[in-house]
Specification:
Rossmann fold; globular; 15% strand; 15 helices; six-stranded parallel β-sheet; alpha/beta
Length: 378
């Protein structure tokens, strides 16, 4: 079988799909991805072909600003999000995606839930499709805005709009039940899929790691924007006052070792989450689903410093399970992060709750099982 994945051109939308894509390939199926050409290296590193279509995230954001006069990065309203995901993305990717899909000839399309290009291409070509929920269920106002933006794109092409816009007939849900929206009603045919922290392709040698000093190890993983706004070095300096070793990811300008003794800090521009999480006692992160669920899958408690409302809601759900602490939405205060981290490390209830969450995730079906189920559904 030939399976074609569609995703928004960002690592947070691409990496959660990889375990399922790898499982399909391992079972003998041919897999490729449709996304922006800028993701070529990331897709080819996994051994998959890329069918380029659409613009980068940055170009898409700029187009939203051109159309609306508003910057989605400053005002993440449902309407602006919908203009990006269900408006600009379809308008600027559909033609190339349709042509590439026709030529490639898939038997099944798999699209992450807020990729609206895959579903409209599948409708045009009358192909079966599965949608992958890589985040908790969207709030109703966001769902309504997305449908309102996408519907006229179907009408303009004389296409029948989907009956179930955001779940479809095959909904693969990566969200652990305890971290899902409490008021969300899942579709009857929901297919649970165990989320995993991203691991390097098979055969990739692990990175050389510092041995550490014997102190508890803490991973600090913030987005580029959040790290720049806070000053990652300032945050790390604050956390270094605790009796811990630090592992941090950064983008752009490298930072120094803060004058700490050798072995107390490791800095990486990129390392697979599965390796970053090895031996970690706690994680400080922003609340993105990939990091949140990967951390939970390892049974590691977290301090979450959310920048956006969706991240804040997710942070509060983690806090409700007892597996971490949620800080207020906005630019994180280094002293507040350090105080929360101290609690998470000292109070054993956080680790115990994280272990319960880990066990819940471990009980979800693995990617190889879901790959077989999808293939058998065609």
């Amino acid at each position: 079988m030939r399976v074609l994945f569609f995703n928004n051109p960002a690592m947070g939308h691409f990496l959660p799909l990889i375990p399922l894509a790898r499982a399909l390939r391992k079972q003998g199926h041919t897999v490729a991805f449709v996304t922006a050409a800028t993701m070529l290296d990331d897709v080819e590193r996994e051994g998959f072909d890329l069918l380029p279509a659409g613009v980068t995230m940055q170009e898409g954001v700029a187009e939203v600003t051109r159309r609306t006069g508003k910057n989605i990065m400053d005002s993440r309203t449902p309407e602006l999000a919908a203009e990006f995901f269900a408006g600009v993305r379809i308008d600027l990717a559909f033609d190339d995606a349709l042509a590439a899909t026709k030529e490639w000839g898939p038997d099944l399309i798999v699209a992450e839930q807020v990729d609206f290009v895959g579903p409209i291409v599948a409708t045009e070509l009358n192909l079966p499709i599965a949608l992958a929920g890589i985040d908790p269920a969207l709030e109703t106002d966001f769902q309504d805005a997305l449908v309102a933006a996408a519907r006229p794109r179907y009408q303009d092409r004389d296409l029948q709009a989907p009956v179930h816009w955001l779940t479809g007939n095959r909904f693969v849900d990566l969200c652990p039940p305890s971290l899902q929206r409490a008021d969300w009603v899942p579709p009857i045919d929901r297919i649970a899929l165990r989320p995993e922290p991203y691991s390097a392709p098979e055969g990739t040698p692990p990175a050389q790691r510092a041995p550490g000093t014997g102190r508890p190890k803490v991973l600090v993983s913030l987005s580029t924007v959040a790290a720049a706004a806070t000053g990652l070095d300032t945050l790390l300096r604050s956390l270094s006052t605790l009796d811990v070793d630090l592992v941090a990811t950064f983008s752009g300008r490298p930072i120094d070792d803060l004058g700490l003794e050798p072995g107390r800090i490791e800095l990486f521009s990129f390392l697979p989450a599965a390796e970053l999480l090895d031996g970690v006692a706690a994680v400080v992160h922003q609340g993105g689903s990939g990091t949140t669920w990967g951390t939970a899958a390892r049974g590691v408690p977290a301090v979450i410093a959310p920048a956006a409302i969706g991240q804040f809601r997710q942070a509060k759900r983690v806090e409700a399970t007892g597996a971490g602490l949620a800080l207020p939405q906005g630019q994180p205060d280094p002293a507040a992060v350090a105080e929360a981290l101290g609690r998470v490390l000292i109070e054993p209830s956080f680790t115990a709750a994280a272990h319960r969450l880990r066990d819940e995730i471990a009980a979800m079906p693995p990617a190889d099982e879901i790959a077989k189920r999808l293939v058998n559904s065609i």
